[in-house]
Design a protein that fits this description.
The protein has 15 helices and 13 strands. Strand 1 (5-9), helix 1 (18-28) and strand 2 form a beta-alpha-beta unit. The protein has helices at residues 18-28, 44-50, 66-83, 96-102, 118-121, 123-132, 141-150, 194-207, 222-231, 246-254, 277-284, 297-300, 315-326, 329-343, 348-366; strands at residues 5-9, 34-39, 55-58, 87-90, 109-114, 135-138, 157-159, 180-184, 212-216, 238-242, 258-261, 289-292, 307-310. The protein is 43% helix and 16% strand. With 367 residues, it is an alpha/beta fold. It folds into 2 domains: 5-163 and 347-366, 3-Layer(aba) Sandwich (Rossmann fold), CATH 3.40.50; 180-345, Glycogen Phosphorylase B (Rossmann fold, 3-Layer(aba) Sandwich). The chain has a 7-stranded parallel β-sheet with strand order 3-2-1-4-5-6-7, with helices on both faces.
């Protein structure tokens, strides 16, 4: 029988996010027994009942707070005694004590995933995980550098990016009737770069008068963004869609010209893209990308191949890159094909295989 895998994570579907989708993808593709220990989510009982493996939840009140993490930690040892894992995969440094307890009954191997901004935000927890885990996994080279800066004593650390599914086949997708830029991102954090796009859009409009910027995503800054569009007189060029479902997102990816998300990082590493799975998804859909040359994005976007990397704090550079793509159909077509080829490395079958090979080799080495 293949090793038994227990995944300890503060977040798991039906919640939506990068850690959630990564944990789900690895669990779904593990060749052996697997179980999940996670915090409760709205509608999680229905989701868990349909899952192909056991999902054990603990109270998540207040949501994501210290008391919720403490409950998860207390639940780790009794769950591990029942399941008796061979490998414990911890998805967040805040659950380091839970992972340490989960490995006690069997001496299981501990694998620790790192994503980016949680590393400097919870530096003490990161150092615990870096010292105690048998193998670290970073979603990007940038994330690995954050771990090394916070915890120079960290043990083995391997980069394995998140995975993406095969691109959806959108029936009836046609080229837009206007040059169309697409941004898909939560509108909560300034680092995503919506503010810089607002500054760049008038310059883009000068060279591409009919340009349209479609923004999909919700968050606490959506009202601010709507006000900015109105006060700057950009209403004819901007469509704010709010939160969209997966099928609508796929349609948008299939019917836009350029994907635009100039995320930037902060000097302390607490803001920025650890990887940026949406860039890989856009590339898989054949969308050339304009993105910032900061953080984990440089692993998700290959400059001059799948997109153009620019200074994300410079509206002029953002505008010039967008204009260069929108006004050169041949270049955009070449980059579309190259982006699809580039995205192959992020397909789930490759990512899951890389993870499983690392997990098994660590298990065998420690055994």
């Amino acid at each position: 029988m293949n090793p038994r895998l227990q995944i300890v994570t503060p977040v798991f579907p039906p919640a939506v996010g990068g850690i959630e989708s990564l944990a789900l993808g690895l669990a779904d593709r593990w060749d052996g027994p697997v179980e999940i220990l996670a915090l409760e989510e709205p509608d999680s009982p229905e989701w868990d009942a349909a899952a192909a493996y056991p999902v054990h939840r603990v109270s998540n009140v207040p949501r994501g707070g210290r008391r919720a993490i403490a409950r998860l930690t207390r639940a780790a040892l009794p769950r591990a005694r029942r399941f008796r894992p061979d490998i414990v995969l911890n998805m967040h440094v805040r659950c380091g004590y839970a992972a340490a307890l989960a490995k006690l009954p069997t001496g299981a191997v501990w694998l620790q995933y790192y994503h980016a901004k949680e590393v400097p935000t919870w530096s003490r927890e990161t150092r615990l995980c870096a010292r105690r885990a048998d193998q670290g996994i970073a979603v990007s080279r940038y994330t690995a550098s954050l771990v090394r800066s916070v915890a120079p004593e960290a043990g083995p650390l391997t980069v394995i990016p998140p995975g993406i599914p095969e691109p959806a086949q959108v029936v009836g997708a046609t080229r837009p009737d206007r040059p169309t830029l697409l941004t898909v991102a939560r509108i909560n954090d300034p680092y995503k770069g919506h503010d810089v796009v607002l500054d760049a859009l008038p310059m883009i409009r000068e060279k591409v008068p009919g340009v349209r910027w479609i923004v999909a995503g919700a968050g606490n800054r959506l009202g601010w963004l709507s006000d900015q569009v109105r006060t700057r007189g950009l209403g004819a060029n901007v469509e704010l869609l709010g939160l969209v479902d997966d099928s609508e997102r796929d349609r948008l990816l299939a019917t836009s010209d350029v994907f635009l998300l100039p995320s930037r990082t902060s000097p302390d590493g607490r803001a920025g893209e650890g990887f940026g799975i949406v860039y890989a998804e856009a590339a898989a859909a054949g969308l050339p990308i304009v993105a910032g040359d900061h953080g984990g994005v440089v692993d998700a976007v290959r400059d001059q191949v799948s997109g153009l990397l620019v200074n994300p704090a410079d509206p002029r550079q953002v505008a010039d890159a967008v204009i260069a793509l929108l006004t050169d159909d041949a270049r955009r077509a070449r980059m579309s094909s190259a982006a699809q080829a580039w995205s192959e490395q992020f397909r789930w079958h490759r990512v899951a295989r890389a993870f499983q090979e690392l997990a098994l080799s660590t298990y065998e080495r420690k055994g």
